[in-house]
């Protein structure tokens, strides 16, 4: 586990210093997959709803149990993973739109990387609950830098001029004073067109749970402060929860609430998942809220920014 922590620290340091960090991030992923080789992966439960069935497995290490992962979607074997990674990075490096099959491979790569890291922390450092989400952010920033290098990346939306406060969006977190931080909308990734200034805001959450209101509230603020300048794309892994007492996997989602937010609070440009919750895939939901595999988000963001430019 110390090797994984050291690899993560190197990737985080490069990211926080605004340096390219894809190589360091890939090292984190390889180290996590190697570490998971010490645990046992086995089937746990099936989730069924309206003719949809998803099989889930868990990693176990002694008495420790990881979060559920979609059976067969986390590619842990060395050669298959290397082939998957090479194909996903080739597609992203090309910076071009791609079809459903290609998006599925990118989605599987994203899922493997983020969930392998998260499962390691479930088993070896369960108290570090925020670290997997931080790695998700670092990883996605590296991939957006690969796919859309012509656009600017940052972590904050600067609204300080409305309050007479200057916020440097690219400053390290410890360099942003308290007043300036309060005057910005802190999200995970902001991708901004260097031509038009239009920005795509990407909240990144392994699961949303009760926090689904947050990206909608942030978008409402952005719409009021800068109409038409910011568009939000919510990126997630899944909405699953392990029920150890009943030995089942629950999909924790709130389609009715999301539809109300989308209609009356603000509008997100889409919800992107690796493991799309069954109820979010129903036509009555997707007619109001676009839902796609996470692999599509790169091309969708680039299409928005290029179109507006």
Strand and helix layout:
Blueprint: H1 2-16, H2 22-36, E1 40-49, E2 52-61, E3 64-65, E4 69-70, H3 78-94, H4 100-124, H5 131-147, E5 152-158, H6 178-182, E6 184-192, E7 199-202, E8 204-205, H7 213-225, E9 230-236, E10 240-243, E11 248-251, H8 255-265, E12 270-273, H9 283-286, E13 291-293, H10 297-308
Parallel strand pairs: 7-9, 8-9, 9-12, 12-13
Antiparallel strand pairs: 1-2, 2-3, 2-4, 5-6, 6-7, 10-11
Helix pairs in contact: 1-2, 1-5, 2-4, 3-4, 3-5, 4-5, 7-8
Short description:
This protein is α/β, with parallel strands linked by helices and 309 residues long. It is built from ten helices and 13 strands.
Structural features, described:
The protein is α/β, with parallel strands linked by helices and 309 residues long. The chain has one domain (2-308): Restriction Endonuclease, CATH 3.40.91. 43% of the residues lie in helices and 22% in strands. The protein has helices at 2-16, 22-36, 78-94, 100-124, 131-147, 178-182, 213-225, 255-265, 283-286, 297-308; strands at residues 40-49, 52-61, 64-65, 69-70, 152-158, 184-192, 199-202, 204-205, 230-236, 240-243, 248-251, 270-273, 291-293. Strands 5, 6, 7, 8, 9, 12 and 13 form a seven-stranded mixed beta sheet that branches. Strands 1, 2, 3 and 4 form a four-stranded antiparallel beta sheet that branches. A hairpin with a 4-residue loop joins strand 10 and strand 11 (248-251). Helix 1 runs antiparallel to helix 2, helix 3 (78-94) packs across helix 5 (131-147) and helix 4 runs antiparallel to helix 5 (131-147).
């Amino acid at each position: 586990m110390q090797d994984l922590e050291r690899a993560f620290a190197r990737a985080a340091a490069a990211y926080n210093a605004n340096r390219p960090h894809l190589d360091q991030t890939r090292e984190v992923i390889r180290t996590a997959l190697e570490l998971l080789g010490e645990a046992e992966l086995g089937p746990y439960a099936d989730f069924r709803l309206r003719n949809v069935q998803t099989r889930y497995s868990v990693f176990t290490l002694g008495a420790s149990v990881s979060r559920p992962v979609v059976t067969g979607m986390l590619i842990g074997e060395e050669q298959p993973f290397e082939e998957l990674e090479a194909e996903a990075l080739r597609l992203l490096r090309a910076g071009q739109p791609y079809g459903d099959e290609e998006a599925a491979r990118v989605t599987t790569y994203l899922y493997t990387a983020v969930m392998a890291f998260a499962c390691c922390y479930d088993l070896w450092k369960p108290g570090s609950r925020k670290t997997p989400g931080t790695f998700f952010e670092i990883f996605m920033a590296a991939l957006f830098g690969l796919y859309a290098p012509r656009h600017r990346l940052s972590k904050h939306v600067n609204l300080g001029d409305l309050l007479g406060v200057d916020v440097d969006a690219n400053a390290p977190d410890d360099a942003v004073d308290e007043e300036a931080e309060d005057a910005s909308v802190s999200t995970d990734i902001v991708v901004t067109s260097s031509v038009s200034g239009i920005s795509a805001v990407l909240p990144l959450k392994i699961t949303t749970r009760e926090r689904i209101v947050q990206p909608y509230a942030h978008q409402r603020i952005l719409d009021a402060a800068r109409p038409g300048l910011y568009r939000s794309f919510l990126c997630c892994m899944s909405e699953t929860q392990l029920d150890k007492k009943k030995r089942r996997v629950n999909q924790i989602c709130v389609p009715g609430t999301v539809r109300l937010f989308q209609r009356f609070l603000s509008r997100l440009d889409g919800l992107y998942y690796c493991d799309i919750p069954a109820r979010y895939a129903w036509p009555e939901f997707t007619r109001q809220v676009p839902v796609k595999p996470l692999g599509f988000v790169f091309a969708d963001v680039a299409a928005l920014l290029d179109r507006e430019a």
